[in-house]
């Protein structure tokens, strides 16, 4: 499991011009989610986040894990993830924290703990992980 803490990301065009521009929370989530075969957005003390991480590790997957409570701009990214998971335009702070974990496989949003568990139970999780290159068996 690769733990990533507080990565700074700058816009490439801004680097060429010598300016420092920050990515929007949505752009950061998209870039982080597409960086590895399996990416988990989590919060350190979340029991359901722990369950998903342990399941993936138990299957032999080493996911990249972003602990959003330790990331600069983590609350904004949580709101983006809550929006992506719920499909509704507005989210409260409590629904944003309830949206975690958020699991991306092959750069695409798989879902939260319920979706990951249902895929595991119905047998579709391992093929998804193989297709994304996270498993070789």
TrEMBL record:
GO cellular component, one term: cytoplasm
Chain segments annotated as coiled-coil in the UniProt record: none
Keyword annotations of the record: Cytoplasm, Redox-active center
Pfam family name, one: Glutaredoxin
Residue ranges occupied by any Glutaredoxin domain in the UniProt entry: 38-109
Subcellular location: Cytoplasm
InterPro entries: GlrX-like_pln_2, Glutaredoxin, Thioredoxin-like_sf
Alphabetized PANTHER family for the sequence: GLUTAREDOXIN
Family membership noted in the UniProt record: Belongs to the glutaredoxin family. CC-type subfamily.
Alphabetized NCBIfam families for the sequence: GlrX-like_plant
Name of this protein: (wild Malaysian banana) hypothetical protein
Source organism of this protein record: Musa acuminata subsp. malaccensis
């Amino acid at each position: 499991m690769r733990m990533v803490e507080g990565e700074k990301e700058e816009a490439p065009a801004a680097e060429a011009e010598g300016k420092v521009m920050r990515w929007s929370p949505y752009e950061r989530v998209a870039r982080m989610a597409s960086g590895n075969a399996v990416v988990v957005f989590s919060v350190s003390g979340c029991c359901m986040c722990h369950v998903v991480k342990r399941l993936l590790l138990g299957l032999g997957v080493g996911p990249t894990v972003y602990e959003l409570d330790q990331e600069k701009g983590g609350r904004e990214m949580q709101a983006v993830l809550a929006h992506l998971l719920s499909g509704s335009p507005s989210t409260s702070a409590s629904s944003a924290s309830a949206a975690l974990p958020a699991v991306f496989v092959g750069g695409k949003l798989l879902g939260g703990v319920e979706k990951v568990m249902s895929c595991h139970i119905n047998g579709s999780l391992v093929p998804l992980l193989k297709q994304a290159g996270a498993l070789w068996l």
